[in-house]
Structure prediction request, 243 residues.
Amino acid sequence: MLKSKSYVKKTKRGKVLKVVREHYLRDDIYSGSPLDPECDPSAYKLSQDASQYLIIDTNIALHQIDLLEHESVTDAVIASVVLDEVRARNTSIYQRLRTIISSLPKRFYVFANEHHRDTYVAAEPNETPNDRNDRALRVVAKWYRDRLPRKRIVLMSDDKNNRDLTKEMGVEAMSSLEYAKSRESEVPGLVDLVAQGKSVQNSETAESQEGDGTRGKDKKKRIYEDHRPLSSLMNAIKEGKLH
Prediction:
């Protein structure tokens, strides 16, 4: 299946060019699970006996890599949209994630969602790249839920809004801290690996603010300014404000 996108571009010399981009989509990209009757056995990576399959979002991969590296965290799906974004934002984390993926006991499966006919999503008008990628990952989670109805599918994200939208689609979602706490009885010390950084603090603070009505009040004093989001940087580069 071929999807084409065309737009008009103006060069520095003032010439107007029509740019056409072609995106090829396939229907022979497998889930990696032996529970999927349409999955080729050569693509099996996930265990049929796993209690759940985790769908990992980009912020989890970037900020919770220590948690992901723990031997008890297995049977996870890394969508290609996540892998590409991690590679663009942090080479060191990308290499660590690749090492996890190549480890057979970990059973981390790379799902090429950007080339699958049922999971590719085009950016909507005025949608930021980050929002589009989050939406693409939610589509992946729902695709796995529909594909493997007998298996528990969980999207792991420290973005509360992303989790809420996932739940609205009928798919389970939890933060890294919630995941670690849910397994504390069987894996003592797993909570200690959760990075109590920006992503988790934002998630937990947002939830506490909803309950106690203290929206807008930081519990911890800010020491450093936040990094600018990737979407903001890319827009500034396109506008010539950054180089």
Observations:
- The longest strand covers residues 2-10.
